[in-house]
Amino acid sequence: MDPASILRYGQFVTTVGGAVYDQRGIFSLPRYHTTARVSFADVQARYGRNFHRAMRMPLGAFCDLVDILRPRLPRLGVPPDVRTAIALRYLGGGSYIDIGAALGVHSATVYRALWDVIDAVNSSPASDMDYQLENSTRRRSYASDFQGCRNSPFDNVCGALDGIAIEQEQPLSTDVPCVADYYSRKGFYALNTQAICDSDYKFRWTACTSPGSVHDSTAFSGTGQGRSLLDRGSALARSMTRDGHCIAADEAYAASERLADPWPGGGRGDRWRDAFNFFLSSLRIHIEQTFGMLLWRWVFFGGRCGCRFRSGLA
Fold it and tell me: End-to-end distance of the chain based on CA atoms, in angstroms?
């Protein structure tokens, strides 16, 4: 190509480039976010009367949560109340695309807000679970509440125990020692999460230290709480045995003086065993219902979590 042709070609490219720059809405992808600062008033205006449904809590409870998390949230960038609203909307099942479009923020801001709020919740003393199982007075209070809410003949059950498989994406071999350990019997990769609740459907203790293939009984016995309950020589086990207190569980756990399991085989026609199973099940069902409330309120836990695995989950 001669020099004159090269010059004409360069002028043509420059002209086309200028036209594309002047008509960005036609020749390039539109921008879906704005750099304008988002306020909490914008969030309230966006969701209006459906704010409590979008956040899965009323406005008063939301403000109380923000006040608790505010000292542990970043002070620059998105305000703490907006950051909390983004995280709650995502955990409630909202898509990061819809959240970004509704509030005018970038998708990276949505994920950053999510992790900031989660870290703030994990580090906040106000969100710690206060299951004072070592305190005999608290145990009697738990047992009395269980007996009163179900009109049960049992006055010694101070908690309901069960496990749930939280589905995860397949972990990388660089993140975990053995990928196959996380494949649960339910047919997906998961983490085995153990939990105990009270009669008010409040989680009092949780542990997430085992991969999905681990049996519930093994997962529980590997936790600090499980070791204390199953070790006859521990102070907690001796105190509970002395007072006759126990925790309701299902057949997946090994029966002991501290863990009350139903009679195997459904009682096999014995009316006393059948009655025992019935009343024990009416108390143990609290943890099943609590898991259901958790998944219904925070849809994020009912789907497949796409986060990277972190060592030492608990």
Answer: 69
pLDDT of residue 265: 76
Provide the H-helix boundaries in 28-182: 40-47, 51-55, 59-69, 80-91, 96-103, 107-123, 136-150
Contact (CB, 8 A) for 173 and 164:
no
155 touches 147 (CB < 8 A): yes
Count CA within 13 A, CB hemisphere, residue 164.
18
CA dist., res. 300 & res. 193, Å (int):
15
**Contact by Cβ (8 Å): 259, 253:** yes
Is the CB of residue 240 less than 8 Å from the CB of residue 139? yes
Which pLDDT belongs to residue 148? Answer: 87
Asked if 171 and 211 touch (Cβ cutoff 8 Å), the reply is no
Decide: pTM greater than 0.85: no
Regions of the chain where pLDDT drops below 70: 1-36, 267, 303-314
Distance of CA 72 to the CA centre of its chain: 19
Would you give the distance in Å from CA 10 to the centre of its chain? 58
- Helices 80-91/107-123 angle, 10° precision: 100
Task: Specify whether the CB–CB gap between 159 and 248 falls below 8 A.
Answer: yes
Query: Alpha carbon of 21 to those of 26, 27, 35, 61, 128: distances in Å?
Result: 10, 8, 20, 48, 54
- The values of phi and psi at residue 246, to 5°, are -150, 175
User: Could you tell me the two tokens for 3?
Assistant: 């020099």
